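User: Okay, second chain of the day. Same drill as before: sequence in, C-alpha coordinates out.
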Amino acid sequence: MSAQVHVPSLFARFGTASVLTLAVTSTMLAPGMVSEAEAAAHSTKALKVAASKKGAPYKYGAAGPSRFDCSGLTLYSFKKAGKKLPRTAQQQYNKTRHIAKSQRKRGDLVFFHSGRSVYHVGIYAGAGKIWHSPKSGDVVRLAKIWSKSVWYGRVR
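Assistant: Same drill. C-alpha coordinates below.
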Protein backbone atom coordinates (compact mmCIF):
# COMPACT_ATOMS: atom_id res chain seq x y z
CA MET A 1 0.00 0.00 0.00
CA SER A 2 1.57 3.29 -1.03
CA ALA A 3 1.12 6.57 0.84
CA GLN A 4 -0.25 9.46 -1.11
CA VAL A 5 1.10 12.95 -0.55
CA HIS A 6 -1.47 15.71 -0.89
CA VAL A 7 0.09 18.88 -2.24
CA PRO A 8 -1.97 22.07 -1.70
CA SER A 9 -3.63 23.13 -4.95
CA LEU A 10 -1.60 26.36 -5.07
CA PHE A 11 1.65 24.39 -5.23
CA ALA A 12 0.22 21.77 -7.58
CA ARG A 13 -0.37 24.45 -10.21
CA PHE A 14 3.25 25.55 -10.17
CA GLY A 15 5.04 22.22 -9.87
CA THR A 16 7.88 20.88 -7.77
CA ALA A 17 10.57 23.27 -9.03
CA SER A 18 8.52 26.30 -8.05
CA VAL A 19 7.79 24.87 -4.60
CA LEU A 20 11.52 24.27 -4.15
CA THR A 21 12.29 27.81 -5.31
CA LEU A 22 9.73 29.17 -2.86
CA ALA A 23 11.27 27.15 -0.02
CA VAL A 24 14.81 28.27 -0.85
CA THR A 25 14.06 31.96 -1.43
CA SER A 26 12.02 32.35 1.73
CA THR A 27 14.80 31.09 4.00
CA MET A 28 18.06 32.65 5.14
CA LEU A 29 20.65 32.72 2.40
CA ALA A 30 23.73 33.17 4.59
CA PRO A 31 24.52 33.49 8.28
CA GLY A 32 23.74 37.00 9.53
CA MET A 33 21.45 37.82 6.62
CA VAL A 34 17.69 38.00 6.91
CA SER A 35 15.11 36.78 4.45
CA GLU A 36 13.46 39.26 2.11
CA ALA A 37 10.18 38.71 3.97
CA GLU A 38 11.78 39.52 7.32
CA ALA A 39 13.49 42.63 5.91
CA ALA A 40 10.17 43.75 4.43
CA ALA A 41 8.44 43.31 7.81
CA HIS A 42 11.04 45.50 9.54
CA SER A 43 10.84 48.12 6.80
CA THR A 44 7.03 48.22 6.92
CA LYS A 45 7.10 48.69 10.69
CA ALA A 46 9.77 51.42 10.43
CA LEU A 47 7.66 53.22 7.81
CA LYS A 48 4.65 53.16 10.16
CA VAL A 49 6.75 54.50 13.03
CA ALA A 50 8.06 57.37 10.87
CA ALA A 51 4.51 58.22 9.73
CA SER A 52 3.36 58.24 13.37
CA LYS A 53 5.85 61.06 14.02
CA LYS A 54 4.13 63.39 11.53
CA GLY A 55 4.38 66.96 12.81
CA ALA A 56 7.32 66.33 15.18
CA PRO A 57 9.72 69.29 15.01
CA TYR A 58 13.13 69.12 13.36
CA LYS A 59 16.08 69.51 15.70
CA TYR A 60 19.66 69.06 14.55
CA GLY A 61 21.23 66.03 16.24
CA ALA A 62 17.92 64.77 17.67
CA ALA A 63 16.87 61.13 17.40
CA GLY A 64 13.47 61.16 19.12
CA PRO A 65 11.14 60.45 20.59
CA SER A 66 9.64 63.91 19.99
CA ARG A 67 12.23 65.78 17.87
CA PHE A 68 14.31 64.53 14.95
CA ASP A 69 16.86 65.39 12.32
CA CYS A 70 16.71 63.33 9.10
CA SER A 71 18.95 60.44 10.14
CA GLY A 72 17.58 60.58 13.67
CA LEU A 73 14.12 59.82 12.29
CA THR A 74 15.36 56.82 10.28
CA LEU A 75 17.48 55.56 13.18
CA TYR A 76 14.55 55.87 15.62
CA SER A 77 12.05 54.27 13.23
CA PHE A 78 14.20 51.25 12.48
CA LYS A 79 15.20 50.87 16.14
CA LYS A 80 11.49 50.62 17.03
CA ALA A 81 11.20 48.00 14.25
CA GLY A 82 14.03 45.97 15.79
CA LYS A 83 16.91 47.00 13.50
CA LYS A 84 20.01 48.97 14.38
CA LEU A 85 21.32 51.74 12.13
CA PRO A 86 24.34 54.03 12.54
CA ARG A 87 23.71 57.71 13.38
CA THR A 88 24.40 59.76 10.24
CA ALA A 89 22.85 59.62 6.76
CA GLN A 90 26.25 58.77 5.20
CA GLN A 91 26.88 55.99 7.73
CA GLN A 92 23.37 54.63 7.13
CA TYR A 93 23.99 54.60 3.37
CA ASN A 94 27.25 52.71 3.93
CA LYS A 95 25.43 50.11 6.08
CA THR A 96 22.47 49.38 3.78
CA ARG A 97 22.23 47.03 0.80
CA HIS A 98 22.24 49.37 -2.20
CA ILE A 99 19.40 48.81 -4.64
CA ALA A 100 18.26 50.26 -7.95
CA LYS A 101 15.31 52.64 -8.21
CA SER A 102 13.40 49.88 -10.01
CA GLN A 103 13.83 47.63 -6.94
CA ARG A 104 12.74 50.14 -4.30
CA LYS A 105 9.92 49.21 -1.96
CA ARG A 106 8.01 50.96 0.77
CA GLY A 107 10.26 51.17 3.81
CA ASP A 108 13.54 51.39 1.90
CA LEU A 109 15.81 54.33 2.67
CA VAL A 110 16.19 57.15 0.16
CA PHE A 111 19.54 58.93 0.27
CA PHE A 112 20.01 62.37 -1.26
CA HIS A 113 23.53 63.01 -2.44
CA SER A 114 25.80 65.61 -3.95
CA GLY A 115 28.59 63.86 -5.80
CA ARG A 116 29.64 61.00 -3.55
CA SER A 117 28.45 62.62 -0.31
CA VAL A 118 25.09 61.79 1.23
CA TYR A 119 23.45 64.81 2.88
CA HIS A 120 19.85 63.69 3.61
CA VAL A 121 17.81 60.53 4.19
CA GLY A 122 14.15 59.59 4.33
CA ILE A 123 11.99 56.46 4.30
CA TYR A 124 10.31 55.56 1.01
CA ALA A 125 6.51 55.64 1.36
CA GLY A 126 5.61 54.62 -2.20
CA ALA A 127 4.33 56.73 -5.11
CA GLY A 128 7.57 58.73 -5.26
CA LYS A 129 7.21 60.06 -1.70
CA ILE A 130 9.21 59.85 1.52
CA TRP A 131 8.69 60.44 5.21
CA HIS A 132 11.48 62.70 6.42
CA SER A 133 12.52 65.42 8.83
CA PRO A 134 13.58 68.12 6.38
CA LYS A 135 15.32 71.07 8.08
CA SER A 136 15.35 73.54 10.92
CA GLY A 137 11.96 75.24 11.33
CA ASP A 138 10.14 72.34 9.64
CA VAL A 139 8.46 69.14 10.88
CA VAL A 140 8.39 65.43 10.04
CA ARG A 141 6.21 65.11 6.97
CA LEU A 142 5.42 63.21 3.79
CA ALA A 143 7.01 64.81 0.74
CA LYS A 144 7.58 64.10 -2.93
CA ILE A 145 11.14 63.11 -3.84
CA TRP A 146 12.39 66.40 -5.28
CA SER A 147 15.71 65.37 -6.77
CA LYS A 148 17.09 62.87 -9.24
CA SER A 149 20.29 62.70 -7.19
CA VAL A 150 19.11 59.91 -4.92
CA TRP A 151 20.31 56.45 -4.04
CA TYR A 152 18.26 53.69 -2.43
CA GLY A 153 19.22 51.33 0.37
CA ARG A 154 17.53 48.40 2.06
CA VAL A 155 18.11 47.79 5.75
CA ARG A 156 19.30 44.23 6.32
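The mean pLDDT is 85.

User: Thanks, on to the next one.
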